[in-house]
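Hi R.,

As promised on Friday, here is the backbone we talked about, encoded as structure tokens. Could you run it through your design pipeline when you get a chance and send me back a sequence?
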């Protein structure tokens, strides 16, 4: 089932600066909106209704209201009645424009909430779309620790007790920022973009074995925490014994699929004596370089292969020409 939100929830949660008020159709407050993109039904008013999608917010601005005003009374009534027969979630009129009486009556009869606001259409569409994209985004909760490392969203994963929280605590002491510990809430806000945040109940609390529950915000201050961040890299902490042949070149790139998005992933072997915070920092810097088009392992590999080919050509034996001069004396 696709995620959706009711008209009532939109009225309760949407930006209060929009000043949305109800004119008619309160019986349709349970109508559901499942499409984040707001629609302006200009073509539908002209009679072409094929692209009016159900469960979508419709906005009537100055152009649409001027068009309705230009119609003869009978045609206007017929047009508005036809519009309200469509499976519309709600209609919002912008610029504080007064709706035709027939529109109020048709919305009331069809149980379609008719709303109005004083803000311009562009402002309403922009803010309402952002709100709906966040509310209707695909969601998932994963176990791990999410850090802001050099502005990069790094999700540390691994089995319980592998040392994720301890590594995160060391990173925080180095000036990096905690986003979430233990429960990471993820939303797919674009085709290839994941936005993650902390669980509201957990906040910035962290469990450290031997110390118990600590509050990073109280201990380190606001500069050590961040509310949300896109996920750019997954660092999978694995026991050294579970990886008999760890990657030593970095040429093989791996990824983890989260909500249908492939996120770059590195396997980080863990054993006593390894400075995990430093290794995670280096992995983050390395990923940042990749974003800028620099892939150190691949560039080094290409340079070595190029040198080997050049050396091979220079050492290749010369082939003597077949035959010789006729009548020459034998040595």
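Update: got your reply. Pasting your designed sequence below so it's all in one thread:
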């Amino acid at each position: 089932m696709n995620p959706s939100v009711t008209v009532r929830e939109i009225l309760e949660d949407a930006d209060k600066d929009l000043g949305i008020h109800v004119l008619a159709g309160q019986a349709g407050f349970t109508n559901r909106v499942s499409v984040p993109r707001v629609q302006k039904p200009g073509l539908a008013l002209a009679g072409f209704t094929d692209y009016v999608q159900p469960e979508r917010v419709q906005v009537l601005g100055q152009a649409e209201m001027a068009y309705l005003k230009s119609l003869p009374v009978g045609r206007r009534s017929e047009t508005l009645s036809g519009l309200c027969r469509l499976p519309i979630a709600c209609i919002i009129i912008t610029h504080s424009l007064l709706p035709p009486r027939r529109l109020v009556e048709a919305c009331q009869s069809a149980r379609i909430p008719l709303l109005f606001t004083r803000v311009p259409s562009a402002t309403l569409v922009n803010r309402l779309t952002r709100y709906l994209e966040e509310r209707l985004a695909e969601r998932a909760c994963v176990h791990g620790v999410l850090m802001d490392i050099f502005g990069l969203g790094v999700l540390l994963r691994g089995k319980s007790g592998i040392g994720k929280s301890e590594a995160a605590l060391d990173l925080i002491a180095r000036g990096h920022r905690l986003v979430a510990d233990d429960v990471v809430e993820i939303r797919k806000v674009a085709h290839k973009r994941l936005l993650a945040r902390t669980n509201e109940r957990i906040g910035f609390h962290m469990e450290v074995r031997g110390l118990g529950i600590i509050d990073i915000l109280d201990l380190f201050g606001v500069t050590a925490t961040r509310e949300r961040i896109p996920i750019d890299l997954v660092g999978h902490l694995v026991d050294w014994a579970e990886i008999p042949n760890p990657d030593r070149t970095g040429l093989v790139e791996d990824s983890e699929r989260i909500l249908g998005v492939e996120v770059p992933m590195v396997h980080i072997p863990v054993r006593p004596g390894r400075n995990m915070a430093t290794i995670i920092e280096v992995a983050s810097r390395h990923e940042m370089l990749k974003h800028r088009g620099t892939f150190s392992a691949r560039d080094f590999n290409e340079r070595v292969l190029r040198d080997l080919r050049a050396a091979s050509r220079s050492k290749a034996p010369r082939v003597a020409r077949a035959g010789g001069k006729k009548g020459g004396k034998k040595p």
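One thing I noticed while checking it: The chain is about 35% helix and 25% strand.

Thanks again,
M.
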